[in-house]
Amino acid sequence: MSARSGDVAIIGMACLFPQAPDLEAYWENILAGVDAVGEAPADSAAGRILDPSATTNDRLYTTRGGYLGDLATFDPMEFGVMPRAVDGAEPEHFVALRLAHDALADAGYLDRPFNRRAAGIILGRGTYVNRGLVSCFQHTIVVDQVIDLLRALHPESTPGELEEIKRALKANLPPFNPETSPGLAHSVMCGRIANRLDLMGPAFTVDAACASTLIAVDLGIKELKDGACDLVLAGGIQISTTYPIALLFSQLGALARSGSVRPFHPEAD
Length: 269
Description:
Elements: H1 23-32, H2 91-107, E1 119-124, H3 131-153, H4 159-171, H5 186-197, E2 203-206, H6 212-225, E3 231-236, H7 243-251
Parallel strand pairs: 1-2, 1-3
């Protein structure tokens, strides 16, 4: 059967989901009806702000979620990324790069020649508060507030002692330095992928909240049909949903207190 004008072919895919390190595992989980929503990892800080009866704006009434755990891995040396640029930056940048690489490999285009000037990357990303930005906030405003509080409670503290406490507080945080700065901007994510995978077509992120990935795929299809691109990597990523976001949804009552997500069910909470 011959292809019709304007047809678009999906020639490769890659993914990462809770309990699914790759596309095959994800499909098997779907067939088996696996519920990948679970408790927060033991080493998570979630327990510090968990209160099942919470109604205040600084506590979560549930910490159940779709956690990636050890599946969220990235080898910076494999992709020519400075190791110092990873810790403290937004994890999405690096996991997206790995998955983009895997999708090209799945399509058989990792090593074969193709028109790289007509190859684009469009990704959906719907939340601006990420791990890196929270770290920046902690390094500055939060640490300063702690020092101000200590100065008020213990006026006998010397400037040297307070400076030592400040250094200790910052040492316990992820790094915030020039190397991590590019990893805090959504716009850099697709640019990094384009640079590392040598793609020279359109490269941008899309924010349409929960519809971000669908819009990214739709735009990718339009790029192909308009003839602007011969190949487009399109998808979405959201993995570092920090506690400020969870607290917001908790305030809205948008998280299930039962810990069980039941869309359209009469007992859904």
